[in-house]
Amino acid sequence: MAKSVCAVPATTCSPPAAALPQSEDSREGVLLSAGSHTHSSETPAFTEELAVYALGGRSQRQRTSLPAPCPGSQMLEPLQKRADKQVKEHGVSSSCPSSLAPNDGAPEGGHIISDYKRLLVLGADVDAMLGKGLLFTDAFTWNLTSDDSRSWLHSQQLQLKIGVKDQLPPEGPSPQPSCLGACGTMRSLRCLSSEALAAHAPVALQSLDCVAHNLYPLLFKASYLLEQVDLVQALLVRWPLEEFRLGALLGPGTDHPEDLRDRPCRPCLEACVRGLRGHVLRAEGRTHLRLADLTGLRDVQEPRCRCGRTLGRWGRTELLARACLELQAEPRVAGSPTVEVLADLFVTEGNFEAVVRALRQAGTAPLRLLCPSFRADSLRPAQLLQVLRLAGPGALRRLEVVHNVRLHAGHVEQLLAQVRFPRLTALTLPAKAFDAPPLAQGSGPHDEDSHLAAIARALSQMTQLTELSVAFSTLTGKVQQLLGPLQTPLRTLDLANCALNYADMAFLASCPHAAHLEVLDLSGHDLVSLYPSTFFRLLSRAAPSLRALTLEECGIGDQHVNRLVLGLSPCLQLQELRLLGNPLSARALRSLFAALCELPGLRCIEFPVPKDCYPEGATYPQDQLAMSKFDQQKYEEVAGELRAMLLRAGRDDIQASTPLFGTFDPNIQERSQELGAFLLQSFKSALEKFSRALEQME
Predict the structure, then answer these.
(1) What is the pLDDT of residue 622?
(2) Which DSSP symbol is given to 442?
(3) In angstroms, rounded to a whole number, what is the distance separating the alpha carbons of residues 283 and 236?
(4) What's 6's DSSP letter?
């Protein structure tokens, strides 16, 4: 613990005096009282200790003199007004049972905290006080030994909706008090106090040296919620703990149940990085911070940050890279420690140079960039290889190589041979990554099996690999060769549009992976018509664990619905089912939905536009132009009927939709302009090659 000094003094304070020398680990929290008190019995002394520990602090027994009033003295009046307002709005009774009588040994010298009601709002741990049978008000200590006393106090807390668990709220509608977050969950009194302090940013900035070390995480979350950018930066500059884990700090906790991880607020995140930069420059070797984990944020379609300005994964990558480069130019104190920074990197052509330069100097820089998750797009194979070598592949857990990275089997073999990924758990490769390389001039056909065998050997050495996505690669007859050598069973497998044949399906149905699959995508295969027995055997084996199943453009028609229902009925853990692009009529969809209501875990259904809504003679699979030409009014009628079926069955927890053009991808959304430009450039290059080939032929 570190020293404890006054951050929120009460209205009555004794004259300033020099503080006692204090050890680095004596700090428990922020003092709420700076009055001088004497004690005539042990009980009042303990009660005062509860008072000054309201936000964590030390009691009068732990000091003989008081520090000078700190800049937080202006805070008490607005907090008391807030308390009085909340008490008035939520009807807390001013009367109490006769058994709540004052003790003779009350502390002297002024009030500790103005009264019980303000104590609730200011942040005292009233539950702990009730457990001890003690409570204090202006100058009294109440004995809470009788049942009616406890019952009365609990009822008051219920009216304030603060700190009481396992109790029923009062009857009748009432406005939601400030202690309830946006999600309607209970926030602790420490949380309310932290938000009150963060709301007065100038006062808080002057008082940070007075704040207990163990309150920094809660004060950071309150500052992030209120988007107090200067306070967020200052907290990082002074961060007293060994670790700063952004995802954990913003996630739900005991004091503050609200989840802020889906708020990638640009101003706050920029303040975090500036704070880290200031921390290592200010510390000069004295920093306690060893790890800054900036992972755990969720990029969503409609973020809830108040400013409306978000910073996606690509932007966070560039921001960190620039900060590392700026620090490399700063003079550094000899022997000063390095802070390791964990970040989910997203690298494209646009930020490639900055990221490579930042990673290249990681060993000597004040901030050492580490990468548990890496996503690459719009890179050449040589660039991908270079940046992965620098990114610390030994610590890499997730690798996504997507869209515009043009790889073939030769590239993948070279990548896995030259860069080892011993801790990799998830691997995503782009389209055609397992296709044979183009023929070299003057040579015969490449041995495709040799490339695949080398890739399979490399994958088998990844003993923690449980997620594999190789969609849109031609794997006809090769699935056993690829998946057979794997050391661990897969939980996620994406084989969409891989041109699987009967042998591939037979292997999947009988292999060890089947019984462990949680996420399975077999889109683009005519499963129910061509391989019904093997497909339903696979579904049966996966049923106990399967959570998400995608069967888009699989030729599932009305005649297949009954068998599909039978196959899905054992999948009691199924949460997501995607069936877009299948030729199902409105009647078949009604039958399917009636059966899906029986799956207790189901939460999401993506269903196709009924074929009744398309012109007669429409063919499947459809291109995007044909897919969008349907009777919108008729579709809305059918979709309304299907949702009404869910409601009648009591399944309003199921979201049913038809996202014709795919679901939201925050990474594509963030870099859409760059990716579009890359595609245009690729198309231009292809046209030039085609033109040169025509000229040679002529």
Answers:
(1) 87
(2) T
(3) 11
(4) B
Q: Convert 273-298 to b/e letters by CB count within 10 Å (16 or more is b).
A: bbbbbebbbebeeebebeebbbbebe
Give the amino acid at 436: A
Which positions ≥6 away from 377 have C-beta within 8 Å? Answer: 346, 347, 348, 402, 403, 404, 405, 667, 671, 675
Tokens coding 309:
């300005």
10-residue block means of pLDDT along the chain (698 residues)? 32 28 32 28 29 31 31 40 49 37 33 35 41 34 39 40 31 37 57 82 85 89 95 95 96 89 95 94 74 94 86 94 88 76 94 94 78 94 95 93 92 94 96 82 57 95 97 95 95 97 97 97 95 96 97 96 96 97 96 96 96 90 86 95 96 93 73 59 59 66
Q: Is the distance from CB of 667 to CB of 375 less than 8 angstroms? A: yes
Nearest to 315 by CA among 366, 381, 264, 377: 264
Whether the Cβ atoms of residue 550 and residue 497 lie closer than 8 Å to each other? no
Spatial neighbors of 660 by CB under 8 A, at least 6 apart, are 580, 609, 627, 628
Tokens 């101003």 correspond to 267
- Alpha carbon distances (Å) from 301 to 99, 238, 662: 56, 33, 13
What does the block give as tokens for 632?
Answer: 């919108």
Token readout for 517 is 């699959």
Closest CA to 276 of 202, 365, 209: 365
Under DSSP, is residue 470 helix (H, G, I), strand (E, B) or coil? coil
Q: Under DSSP, is residue 575 helix (H, G, I), strand (E, B) or coil?
A: coil
**How many whole angstroms from its chain centre is CA 584?**
36
Question: Do 384 and 418 meet the contact criterion of CB atoms below 8 Å apart?
Answer: no
For 576, the enclosing helix (H) or strand (E) is strand 576-578
Q: What is the DSSP string of 239-298?
A: --SSEEEHHHHHS--SS-----TT--BHHHHHHHHHHHHHHHHHHTT-----EEE-----
Its pTM stands at 0.74
Establish whether the linkage from the previous residue to 621 is cis, with ω within 30° of 0: yes
> What is residue 118's predicted lDDT score, i.e. its pLDDT?
38
- Round to whole Å and give the CA distance between 634 and 640: 10
Retrieve residue 457's tokens: 């050997």
Instruction: Using alpha carbons, select from 6, 37, 174, 42 the residue that is nearest to residue 110.
Output: 37
SS3 sequence, 219-249? HHHHHHHCCCHHHHHHHHHCCCCCEEEHHHH
For the beta carbon of residue 34, count every other beta carbon within 10 angstroms. 24
